[in-house]
Amino acid sequence: MKAPKYITTTLPYVNSKPHVGFAMEIIRADAMARYYRMQGYEVFLNTGTDEHGIKIWENAQKEGIDVQKYVDGYAKDFKGLVDLLHISPDINFVRTTDTSHIDATQEFWKRCDQNGYIYKKSYQAKYCVGCELVKTDSELDHGVCSIHPNREIELIDEENYFFKFSACEKFLLDFYAQNPNFVIPDFRFNEIKKFLEGGLHDFSISRLKTKMPWGIAVPGDDDHVMYVWFDALVNYISALGWPNDLDNFEKFWTEGAPIQYAGKDNLRQQSAMWQAMLHAAGLPNTHQIVINGFINSAGQKMSKSLGNVISPYDLVEKYGTDAVRYYLLRHVHSFEDSDMTIEKFHEAYTANLVNGVGNLTQRLMKMITSYAVDISDINFNHEPILSYHAKHIEDEADFNTIMNEIWRLVGDMDQFIAEHEPFKKIKVDEAGAHKDLHYLAGELGRLAISLYPFMPSTAEKIQGCLTEVRLPNEPLFPRIEL
After folding, report:
1. Which of 36, 99, 218, 281 lies in disulfide reach of 224, CB 3.0 to 4.6 Å?
2. Does domain 341-468 have CATH number 1.10.730.10?
3. Per-residue pLDDT tens over the stretch 88-121
């Protein structure tokens, strides 16, 4: 029996509208979920929104609106990505303001506390509001955060609750040693191991309510609210109904294989802090964490202040959903930072979609229908094992390589047409031309099946043309002016 798969994105912070960085994360998680479903696995796919913390509180105050109304608006934009990007419709969407999540987080706190991993003390620290993390001097560049250089580092001087991160050091080192593929890619795993070698320090998990009232109340202490990361990380199990729906939790978390997608700025939180917290609560750990790089634009980090943020809503409106899925899966590096501009997107769209798979499908179906080629004996609805995908998805989470292999098939089919010229052969060797086109129809069917996890709408359109033996109702990818 195949162990169920649990695949989750991080929860994007709702202090701005969605950009292509998170679109990439949710598309990759969905592609993996679709692949596993094709292999017969039961899959639970999760995403949602992170809605607490000082950044959100500050922004709502600046805009002069109720903070719940503020997060409701942005949560709607992020939830809209599910339909926009053709994410599997049964995806679970958790909000950290949901009552069920709040209850689960408070229960999680109680268990960590009962097991001796929470205490209270006064402290002073340097804090990056952008990261929502305490920063050491070694993590600052000339006194500022390298990820949020435009934000001033804040000095915290107050009494907070702390999590005994230092008490989990040996556990984490042993856990990493026993799970050599825990973090993908390897260089990110080495990075977090190096972080542990420097020694772990306990971290604050609460804020005074008088200074930052927007958060989940600490159980038994109305003067404090939970630190945003402690709250948000619990979503991975609250989404499964923990602690009330233990059947679902046992199936997908304990007996399944939880896979978490995250950006490189989440490495510490996902692979160390969250794993320590699970250990402290007496719960099983994550199976695997996949760390993506950033998407930059014209050599600069995307930011609202620079005006270089690329909206997935704008891209889909102009180019269509599968074009966005294609670009983010093939042309954005699986693990390193990548540079993306509208010009680069348009060039890839025209070369590989309009003149590539779109033109191939149109030409081939035109010949098959015009020459009355009998392809009725081909089963276009079967779902093969896709064994050539398996290693790259299951072991490496490498979508670039998979997409390149698929487009190699597109190139091979174009080359076959150029070499065999069935459009000429039909005049002198009808049987030979039909044989060539029958072979190409089978290859186009294989292409459609291969595309399904990554570009589901395109795959379904190609399959429709083959099973109904017709031309596309409209161009798969229309030519668009930049």
Report:
1. 218
2. yes
3. 999 999 999 999 999 999 999 999 999 999 999 9
